[in-house]
Amino acid sequence: MDSMIQIKHITKEFKMLNRHEGLKGSLRDLFSRDYKIVRAVDDISMEIAPGEMVGYLGPNGAGKSTTIKMMTGVLEPTSGEILVNGQVPYRNRTRNAQKIGVVFGQRSQLWWALPLIESFKLLRDIYQIPSQQYDQMMALYSDLVDLEPLLHKPVRQMSLGQRTLSDILAAFLHNPKVVFLDEPTIGLDVSMKNKIRELIHALNQQKHTTVILTTHDMGDVDALCQRIVIIDKGKMLYDNDIAHLQKFFGCYRTLKLRLNDASPADACMRLQRELSQAFQAPASPAVSAEEEWVDIVIDEEKLSMMEVLNTVQKLHPIADMKLEEISTEQIIRKIYEEGVQ
């Protein structure tokens, strides 16, 4: 099967002025030629199949948005090749835009003062959607979500969750080949997040739409994506499925403790220092605080869980404890910090 998206060794560089401080510095900058080259995306290659749902992850400033802009045709790569649905996106921006959908968290493509149904009708005319296809999509939407209460409601009167849900419906309305979702559940409550995840999954399955998801919410990734791509500082760190990633880090366990003698934040700092002294790097476990718990991530290939627990017991009274497998979020954090060895 041909790939929906093909990326071969793309690089994107930006020319940035080295700015100086103060009024004199600002005047000097007007005539300065002191530039530096910043490489936002550095030699990234990947192929994405039709209908695949891929999590494209990385910390802020990693190069995710720059890559998405190249895939949507907004930016042209400095070097390398990119094809989306068989077209070079930056050379065929209009045709490419007709075959893609985009949702940016908290940025609506809907008309603010109009009822939702009027926005849908405008999008129908903009994308020249045939009447039969439009009616089929509206019927599908009615089956997937309780759409009727929203259709005649002005967008400005909707809650954030309702607007996000409506934006996702609008992005899929013209039956695009690829949909880019950038932080689609940001700022939403748990109930609305689950509803939107179910909607995205159903649309992907029924319309066989390729979905590229960028998010910092690992709940989105676990619920929607079988494959993840991780980048940092413009370089690709990982490209494989989540199961492989979890198997790769299968030797890690999380010891969760509730201590009597300190708050989680205070205990976290103290335990990190104490465990670093007791167990030398790289075996020294990582410590973090989560609500009322202190999390200690242990690599059992290098260090015994009981050794860590006995050390903590000698230093602090333990009120409660439990043991968990390492979460996707913790795995991603470790990759950001240490890379994949």
Characterization of this structure:
The chain is of the alpha/beta class and 341 residues long. Helix content is 40%, strand content 28%. The chain contains 13 helices and 13 strands. The chain has helices at 22-30, 64-72, 93-98, 116-126, 131-144, 148-151, 160-172, 190-207, 218-224, 242-248, 264-278, 305-315, 328-338; strands at 5-17, 35-48, 53-57, 79-84, 100-104, 178-182, 210-214, 227-232, 235-241, 252-259, 286-290, 293-299, 318-325. It has a six-stranded mixed β-sheet, with helices on both faces. The chain has a four-stranded antiparallel β-sheet with strand order 11-12-10-13, covered by helices on one side. The protein has a three-stranded antiparallel β-sheet with strand order 2-1-4, covered by helices on one side. Helix 7 (160-172) runs parallel beside helix 8.
